[in-house]
Design brief:
- The complex is a heterodimer of chains A (264) and B (149).
- Chain A is built from three helices and 13 strands; from the N terminus they run αααβββββββββββββ.
- Chain A is α+β, with helices and mostly antiparallel strands and 264 residues long.
- Among the domains of chain A are: 2-43; 56-108, no CATH class; 176-247.
- In chain A, the strands form two sheets. In chain A, strands 10-9-6-7-8-12-11 form a seven-stranded antiparallel sheet, with no helix packed on it. A six-stranded antiparallel sheet of chain A has the order 3-4-5-2-1-13, with no helix packed on it.
- Chain B is mainly alpha-helical and 149 residues long.
- Chain B has one domain (6-148).
- In chain B, α1 (6-26) crosses α3, α3 (54-68) packs antiparallel against α4 and α4 packs antiparallel against α5.
- Classes of the chains: A alpha+beta (264), B mainly alpha (149).
- Chain A binds chain B through residues 8, 11-12, 14-16, 18-19, 21-27, 29-30, 34, 36-37, 40-41, 46, 121-129, 131, 158-159, 161, 166, 173-174, 192-194, 251-254, and chain B through 20-22, 24-26, 28-29, 51, 54-55, 58, 61-62, 64-78, 81-82, 84-85, 88-89, 92, 112-113, 115-116, 119-120, 122-123.
């Protein structure tokens, strides 16, 4: 009975020790300005390319003198060829879809002097953040803006790893973005996860209704990329400022194409 | 040698974690999700000697924090260990009626989504959350029955 009690207590002591260790690492990471969080992802490279295929062509048969085995190996070779052709077909379809997406993007964007990196969704983590392809190896940096096929901003990179990045979208409560319109009025975009709030910073330069708002100097490309058209939404004027609340209706899938401008 | 036996558990948990991340993408258009990592966490905490899996769970949490989240390292490992601790304690102390199992799973679900709960507190308790919880709980009960058999 006493032995059972000791085992029982020991179990919880182990739990508490590991809990304490986790919290300790968290505290060290917090006070070292995310040194641990950044150190390992920068040193290690996790390749998230799932399109790599297994190559069966290296299979060797020790006794290849028999006719039957020749047929078997020929059969394997043909099966492999069929597999390769199927993969090629899938790849072809993917490329075709990508090409269509590029054509749509080119027809809608006005900033063709920029180089764009095409990216797709890989994972969504427990916090609802989007992990997308492309990282430091593709010269991406934290804060780079991300566009959709229509050329509109969908978010920015919150964190950049070697091969992938975390995208902060309108649906993230941490989302905060400065914007401007053609009349150089400044706006701040914030989100509570369900509603995007756009409030003007300072006095408006014109009494006209605000329509398209663009990225501002904080992203190094002033007025280049549209974020949202405010014209269809109700604009509440309080004093000389305006406030617009827009319900967020993002819809991304693993096939959604994102575009990230590379030369800033 | 003692630590080698942790490796299969570690591989298992990291695989479940990666499947969870992929499922998040698959179920995105349907606006609901199956928390398979939580299911396995509660399952291991309630059915097995969870003291043995604490180290792999700790490393899985660290791995997740390092590579798949913007949180500080240690946040998710503490969450996972806390859930394991809670489930293990609850199973030691209480009888196992369906109501109690549902309550334990519900509290574990809240702990698992603790970060979302504090960030999206006003919109967390929606129909989708209840659906997520119900489906995950049903899978948990089914798996538990299957293992007990």
């Amino acid at each position: 009975m006493q032995k059972q009690n000791i085992g029982f207590i020991r179990k919880y002591i182990v739990y508490l020790l590991f809990l304490f260790l986790s919290l300790l690492i968290g505290v060290v990471d917090f006070f070292s300005n995310s040194f641990i969080s950044n150190y390992f992802p920068n040193k290690l490279e996790i390749n998230l390319n799932f399109t790599e295929k297994i190559n069966f062509s290296n299979l060797e048969f020790t006794n290849s003198f028999y006719f039957k085995q020749k047929i078997v190996s020929e059969n394997i070779r043909l099966k492999q060829e069929v597999l390769d052709l199927r993969l090629l077909e899938v790849k072809n379809q993917e490329l075709e879809a990508k090409l269509n997406s590029f054509e749509i993007f080119i027809s809608k964007t006005e900033n063709l002097e920029f180089q764009f990196l095409n990216s797709n969704l890989i994972f969504i983590n427990s916090n609802g953040e989007f992990l997308i392809q492309g990282g430091k190896s593709s010269s991406l940096e934290t804060g780079d803006i991300v566009l959709n096929e229509d050329g509109f901003v969908v978010g920015y990179l919150g964190e950049v790893f070697n091969d992938y990045s975390i995208l902060e979208t309108f649906s993230s409560v941490r989302f905060s973005l400065q914007a401007m319109d053609k009349k150089e009025n400044l706006f701040l975009l914030t989100s509570n996860g369900n509603t995007l709030t756009i409030s003007s910073l300072g006095k408006l330069n014109s009494d006209e209704k605000v329509s398209l708002i663009y990225t501002d100097v904080s992203f190094g490309n002033i007025g280049k990329f549209p974020i949202i058209n405010l014209a269809p939404f109700q604009q509440t004027v309080t004093g000389e400022k305006i406030l617009v609340n827009i319900p967020i209706s993002e819809y991304f899938t693993s096939h959604t194409n994102f575009y990230i401008p590379l030369n800033k | 040698m003692k630590y080698i036996r942790f490796i299969p558990y570690l591989i298992l948990f990291i695989t479940i974690q990666l499947i969870q991340l992929m499922l998040n993408v698959v179920f995105l258009p349907f606006e609901f999700n199956i928390e398979i990592f939580l299911i396995f966490l509660v399952l291991f905490g309630s059915l097995f000697d969870s003291e043995k899996i604490i180290f792999p769970i700790f490393l899985t949490g660290i791995f997740y924090d390092l590579f798949f989240s913007t949180n500080f390292v240690g946040v998710y490992s503490s969450l996972y260990i806390f859930i394991l601790l809670f489930v293990s304690y609850a199973n030691d102390k209480f009888t196992k009626s369906y109501f109690q199992k549902a309550l334990i799973f519900f509290l574990s679900y809240l702990m698992y989504n603790f970060l979302n709960l504090i960030e999206y507190y006003s919109t967390f308790f929606t129909f989708n959350s209840i659906l997520n919880f119900s489906i995950s709980f049903l899978i948990f009960i089914s798996l538990e029955k299957l293992i007990n058999r």
